[in-house]
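Appendix B: complex inputs.
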Amino acid sequence: NAGVTQTPKFQVLKTGQSMTLQCAQDMNHEYMSWYRQDPGMGLRLIHYSVGAGITDQGEVPNGYNVSRSTTEDFPLRLLSAAPSQTSVYFCASGQTGIAFFGQGTRLTVV
Amino acid sequence: GDSVTQMEGPVTLSEEAFLTINCTYTATGYPSLFWYVQYPGEGLQLLLKATKADDKGSNKGFEATYRKETTSFHLEKGSVQVSDSAVYFCALSGVPGSARQLTFGSGTQLTVLP
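Resulting structure:
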């Protein structure tokens, strides 16, 4: 039972570099989302998707892009990393009333 | 917009002590309310939830009651164990009956000493 799988678990980037955080789920959930977790601030919603081909912005979308070409995958792209994007990133998928979270990606931008 | 205010931590208790973590919220309409738990190095796991006023969510000895009159969803456990040490997050969804577009509190670190 894989659930929600995120890769990589850890990543260090230099300012200005780009990268993609991967998220895959095997539960056939229509809804997927990305959050970032910063100390003392809980989790904040970056982007979400209610199905393949449909995405929308959350509370803190600036600097991040997403796409949803399949039900299973929901990658998060950083086009030009900034130190302010140093954080732990969580992907979640959900069905009615329950959200399932991945184990997170710890990203450091230097 | 929606917001969740959670009791500041860290909280340190002895094993078998009573636990309360306060959570209040601001939202329009009838949000669904959740408590999530995060163990070290892991993602968040749903602990319990409630979807309408006066509902009581419960799991693993933890309980929380959806109080619309006080806009609260306080987490309680009668006797904590060392294994309950974790970070606890209160959250709401403004999409009725769902866990979509969650708004989280800042989290409360709980440490239980033997």
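The interface with chain B takes residues 4, 31, 33, 35, 40-45, 48, 50, 58, 90, 92, 94, 96-104 of chain A (CB under 8 Å).
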